[in-house]
Amino acid sequence: MTGPFDSGPFDGGLRGDDADADIHHDDAAYVLGALSPADRHRYEQHLAGCARCRESVQAFAGLPGLLSRVPVEQVGAEPAAPPPELSGDLFTAARRARWRRRVMVVAGGAVAAAVCLVLALLLAFGPGRGPTGGQAPPARAMTAVAPAPVTATAALATRPWGTDVTVRCRYHGAASYPVGYTLVVVDTGGHSERISSWSAVPDKTMVLTGTTATRPDRIRAIQVRASDGTPVLSLTP
């Protein structure tokens, strides 16, 4: 018989050297009267010649008396069920805990998604620039400075790298050949910089954006020029 006492203080190395080593494990069962008559007789014969087992039996001698003090009703009684009101409170608390965990998971996912979206926008468009450039800068009509069947508006937006110039241009003629135009920035020093070019499409509004390193306060004029370099539209910021 094996039990919680198999590796007790009397389970020494000598047991493995005996031919009938298993009998050394019957000490507790012998004290509690759990052996069959044949096994009990065999153990008593062994006990007469084994000092180690006699020490074990003496160590377990008080165990029956201790067990006899435990009320039989307590040993066989079913575990008491919690009061109905306590059961209800436990169920409610568990349900609320699950609900809180679910809310925290959803909220955490929403925050993570928002952070990822902000990071993606910053990476895609750079600081200070959204997918539509934030609030669109006001567009102003460009003034005709030479006869030409073209009208346009221009808007300037300050950027960390300089200035974005957005032009909405419409060609009103019926061109039988490609008519080319360029978008030019003239700075306060008189230097001209071409930042965009296109071919006119009759009765179509074209939206063009050019970028310059010149800051808005250093721009004297925004011009639309014909293919021969003649300014036809101009805007003074």
From TrEMBL:
Segments forming domain Putative zinc-finger: 29-54
Keywords: Membrane, Transcription, Transcription regulation, Transmembrane, Transmembrane helix
InterPro entries: Anti_sigma_zinc_sf (IPR041916), Znf_put (IPR027383)
Residue stretches spanning the membrane: 103-125
One Pfam family of this chain: zf-HC2
Name listed for the protein in its UniProt record: Anti-sigma factor
Lineage: Bacteria, Bacillati, Actinomycetota, Actinomycetes, Micromonosporales
